Amino acid sequence: MGRRGNAGRLAVVAIAAAVLAVALLPRAGMQRRPGRIPVRFWHMWTGEWKDVVDRIVARYNASQDKYEVVALSVPSAGADSKFLLGVVGGDPPDVMAQWNAVIPTWAENRLLLPLDELMTPEERDRFDREAYPIVKKLGTYKGHLYGLTTGINIWACYYLPAQFREAGLDPDHFPRTLEELQAEADRLTRRDKAGNITRIGFLPNTFLMYAPLFGGGFYDWQHGRLTIDTPANLRALTYLAEERRKLGYDNVVRYEAGLNGTNVQTGGIEWPFISGAYSITVDGQWRVEQIGKYAPNLDYRIAPLPPPAGGKRYGGRSNGNFMIIPRGSKQPEGAWDFVKFWSGLSHPERAAEFYTWGGWLPLSPAIAEAPAYQAYLRKYPQFRQFLTILSSPNIEPLPPVPYQVFLNDRISSTEDSVVRGTIAPEAALKTLTADVEQERARRREMGYAE
Description:
The protein is of the alpha+beta class. It has 19 helices and 14 strands.
């Protein structure tokens, strides 16, 4: 009773804070075509990205005469709260673009409309046949499609050929195994006479990235269950710990403290790879356009992150942008028509141009093979490596469980504790398993889905 009472008080506080946040948000845009059916669309892009979204919306509105999509850019800090209050209050958007880990939680609470209910049999068949494997995983929960992706994020190795040659390595033959990569990284790392790092050859991180490479991962898609304390995951976590120990945890902290732009969101010339601070680094496809804009003369290459011996090729993690339609949408058919238009499900050749505007990876090979996207690849040939990886069945999103945010935080903190040396990998996985089981028990007690 006490726990439920505390939860209730916390919920009231959270709602009050959300109401205050929402009160400060801008009001929705006005309809400009009164004769059409309005479709309210919320998204979280700002700045130059908002301009891209506005162009896509304008293109859709010009493509037909039944609906008018009215777009509203909602600050990301208040977007989820605004959406939830809209659903509860009976006034949600008709469609929303998201990138947060919300699908399992919102779907479990019946806040989202399964897109299966809006698809024709032909559309469902096309999606099942043509969409990349990771596209289907990202939007699916308990056998239903709740989110259709409009841009996937994939990670690969960026590397500097000049530093390879300086170390006596051949940049034309990137390592095929993780063991070979680490051996070359050791030769690429530089230290001064005092032993301080002056250049890092390669710094592996992100447990979610490496677990699939080692043949592990955190979810068994065939049986619908979490997989945490497994031999493959243990090997991945042990690898991350050992490589950080070789460099020295404190040495890396001191080195990175002197760099600009170590945060993944930092763009442009401040990205440390551009200045040569790392010989090899793992990053997303968006860096290709950034390099083209801010360092067009940089000599760099991209290669898939290689697996360890016996691991899975083209493994790794993924996330992305996706479209959702809430229950209570006043125009679900219009919302679905817009989602099909943007995603390329209804017309891949037309939508290919939209993906190039945002520098996004496509939903299906049909979009990638369209003339507009092929022209983009000729302009940014390095982008092709990401398409190769995108086809892999070994790319994994966060597990589709209703406590995704909790799980992601605990996986991240587990890795941090291990690479700091405060807990051994074996004990860390057992602790992570126990923490997840405790969260599942808590959810059961409160009447939530596990």
